[in-house]
Specification:
The protein is mainly α. Helix content is about 70%, strand content about 0%. It folds into two domains: about 130 residues, no CATH class; about 120 residues, no CATH class.
Length: about 270
């Protein structure tokens, strides 16, 4: 009985911590895209820019207390704030259940950094260097000190270098073929970061999953105007013809870490 209570107390603490990290993810992504200082500037209302109080800044509570409206100017708060805090809280719980508390502590920075990358790439096709290169450095440091769940330092270095070379080479060949880049350099740095955290074995499966998912989404976006009654004669806008590949890389990396059957299948195929 005591172990049962201790487990659920720890689980509640993990979810609560995850929602706090979700609040950070929101702030870091939105401020970076807006060109603001995401480190030192205090949190303010998105509408009137009044500084938020401690209670208004609490994850979930600040949103739910005023039924989704800001306390200062009564403007509706975008659901994104609440949804991301809930998502990261549930993600932290899933990481805890799948990896155990030791690996969870080591890998939570990985998930937080990649959540920020997902949002900035989705919002504005930007992958911040502080996230990709900072995450790369942190991954190599944790591998060097033998943090639980990370590859040995030699495999982390091989994963980082191999990931960089792999995606840089793919983009180089695409540029020779089409005369323009098919990937942003942020994607190249992102895959290097993923290789440092997950090792070289994870690179090809992650790249394949990301490319496959991106192709499916791209085909769906191309086909949509032709199957939709409301958009049958409306061509796809040029600015919608590009997809944030970093979002697919992040999603594939999350699947690799949190889906053991996928790793087992790949590892069985590797001599």
């Amino acid at each position: 009985m005591q172990n049962f209570v201790e487990f659920w107390l720890l689980f509640f603490w993990v979810v609560l911590t995850g929602t706090c990290l979700g609040s950070f993810v929101n702030a870091a992504a939105l401020r970076y895209v807006a060109g603001q200082n995401w480190i030192s500037e205090p949190s303010t209302c998105f509408a009137c820019h009044v500084r938020l109080s401690f209670w208004q800044n609490l994850p979930l509570y600040g949103w739910l207390r005023h039924a989704g409206y800001s306390a200062c100017c009564k403007q509706p708060i975008p659901p994104r704030y609440l949804l991301i805090e809930i998502f990261v809280g549930l993600l932290a719980a899933l990481v805890f259940l799948q990896l155990g508390w030791q690996q969870s502590l080591a890998f939570m920075p990985f998930f937080v950094i990649n959540c920020v990358i997902f949002l900035t790439d989705f919002d504005d096709f930007i992958i911040p260097d502080w996230a990709s290169l900072g995450g790369l450095g942190l991954g190599l440091l944790l591998a060097f000190v033998n943090a639980p769940g990370l590859p040995p330092i030699e495999f982390a270095l091989l994963g980082a270098g191999g990931g960089f070379a792999l995606l840089y080479g793919v983009n180089f060949l695409y540029r020779l073929w089409r005369r323009h880049d098919g990937l942003g350099f942020g994607d190249v740095k992102l895959i290097a970061m993923l290789g440092a955290w997950l090792g070289p074995v994870a690179l090809l499966p992650i790249l394949f999953l990301a490319a496959f998912a991106g192709a499916l989404v791209g085909l769906a976006l191309i086909a949509y105007p032709y199957v939709s009654k409301h958009n049958i004669s409306k061509p796809m806008p040029q600015d919608k013809a590009h997809l944030p590949f970093g979002c697919f890389l992040v999603t594939a990396a999350f699947l690799w870490v949190l889906c053991p059957p996928l790793r087992h299948i790949v590892l069985m195929l590797v001599p």
